[in-house]
Amino acid sequence: MDKMWLQYPELRGEIEAVQNIMKKSIRCRDKRIEGSLIELLNSSGKMLRPAFTLISSHFGNYSEDKARSLAAVMELLHMATLVHDDIVDDSKLRRGQETVQSKYGKDYAVYIGDFLFCVCFKLLAENSSLEAIKIDGKSMSRICIGEVEQLNSRFNHKTTVKEYLARISGKTAELFSLSLYIGAAESGCSYRDSRIFWNIGHNIGMAFQIIDDILDYSGSDEAIGKPAANDLSQGIFTLPLIYALRNDDGKLLKLVKQDSFNKEDIHRIISLVQEKGGVKKAQELAVRYTEKAFTLIEKLPNNPYKIILKDIANKLLIREY
After folding, report:
1. What is d(CA 133, CA 141) in angstroms, rounded to the nearest whole number?
2. Angstrom distance (rounded) from CA 44 to CA 24
3. What is the pTM of this model?
């Protein structure tokens, strides 16, 4: 478990219980599949999405079993998308660990991701309303579309800010929104409060992804858990580059018009993006999404978990990058 949860004893035990539900849910007669999934669980990240589901559940009529099962669904869904992402990106590392597709092969990784999706729907069917299943299904389709849009936009130097924001809204922010919304809605919170949670998740997710994309131009391998400039090397043009192209004198455009980059190209692109103010401009937009998230959190009913949500958002979004 990530050390950040040591600061929140209210959540630590619940997150451990969620992890146990996940371990029970992935039991399989094929022990190779089960073993690889346990490895994946043991290398899981901060467990942010299930934590958000647990937090929002405490604003309604909290049901321990239901909230924890729904939280497990959110993390399993996240894991499934990451396994498939790594196949598409041919990624060797995830969170500093060897990816499933690198260790076991792409074919095997496809089935691992598919199995995780099946586990998600099984848990949903057992622990949520029909309406929640419909909402989850819609969110999953939006996440897939976001990934497809990213794939289709590779090496496209004409990608606009609007297109980028639409892409990350589906690719990243959707699951943050769903995690907070499903906990609130399924615990009986009002429609108003449930929608506030959805919008909080959207703004946190948008800021979170923009910050992650900024790190691709300014972070180290250790800081982001994968090779720095990984997205750029894959031809994924994110906000810092899109903004930098607006102030370009032709040098940057000439570089990004290529259909592949060597190490020298990548270093030069990163330097030009910083020089043209792309990183600074992207940071400004991340701040705006962050401020919206905190404004929305203030609209929630007073609750000890409101303070925890605000503190976690602060740790995620108010940092040096």
Report:
1. 12
2. 16
3. 0.91
Q: How is residue 147 written in tokens? A: 């990934």
Length of the chain: 321
Residue whose pair of structure tokens reads 């958002």 in the numeric block: 313
What tokens does 103 get? 């260790």
Amino acid (one-letter) located at 146: G
pLDDT by 10s per residue, the chain, length 321: 788 898 999 899 999 999 999 999 998 888 888 888 888 888 778 899 999 999 999 999 999 999 999 999 999 999 999 888 888 888 887 777 788 888 888 888 899 999 999 999 899 889 878 887 888 888 888 888 888 898 889 999 999 999 999 999 998 999 999 999 999 999 999 999 999 999 999 999 999 999 999 998 986 544 444 456 888 988 999 999 999 999 999 999 999 999 889 999 999 999 999 999 999 999 999 999 999 999 999 999 999 999 999 999 999 998 765
| DSSP state for residue 93 in the 8-state scheme | E
Could you give the CA distance from residue 95 to residue 46 in angstroms, rounded to a whole number? 10
| Rounded Cα gap, residues 138 and 61, in angstroms | 25
Q: What element of type H or E holds 197? A: helix 191-218
| Residues 6+ positions from 246 with CB-CB distance below 8 Å | 276
Q: Could you give all domains of the chain from N- to C-terminal order, each with its CATH number?
A: 12-315 (1.10.600.10)
CB atoms within 10 A of CB 52: 30
Return all residues near 308 (Cβ < 8 A) that are at least 6 apart.
8, 10, 11, 55
Bridge partners of 93? 98
CA distances from 47 to 3, 78, 126 (A): 11, 10, 22
Q: In sequence order, what E strands does 39-160 have?
A: 93-94, 97-98
Sign of the Cα torsion 128, 15, 294, 201 reads: negative
**Contact at 8 Å (CB) between 112 and 33?**
yes
> Which amino acid makes up residue 98?
E
Nearest alpha carbon to residue 72 among 110, 29, 124, 37: 124
